[in-house]
Design a protein that fits this description.
The chain is an alpha+beta fold. Helix content is 42%, strand content 14%. The protein has helices spanning 10-17, 21-30, 46-55, and strands at residues 8-9, 36-38, 41-44.
Length: 66
């Protein structure tokens, strides 16, 4: 069973990602970041945050040779 301490608040996610909390809410509403709604609050499972980070990883772009 998941312990409540393992769920992250939107504020904690914002701190981890070093972004504004409103951006976190935007990602949640957009469906880009999975979250659980509890009343008026959202919680994010750490594994879902890891998937979000991996899905937004930028691949290395090689420069064309002259």
């Amino acid at each position: 069973m998941i312990e409540s301490k393992s769920l992250l608040t939107a504020e904690e996610v914002a701190e981890i990602l070093q972004i504004h909390v409103l951006t976190v809410y935007h990602y949640i509403r957009q469906g880009t970041l999975k979250a659980i709604r509890l009343g008026r609050n959202y919680r994010v499972v750490p594994d879902d945050l890891d998937l979000f980070i991996e899905s937004n990883r930028i691949k290395a772009v090689s420069k064309p040779r002259a």
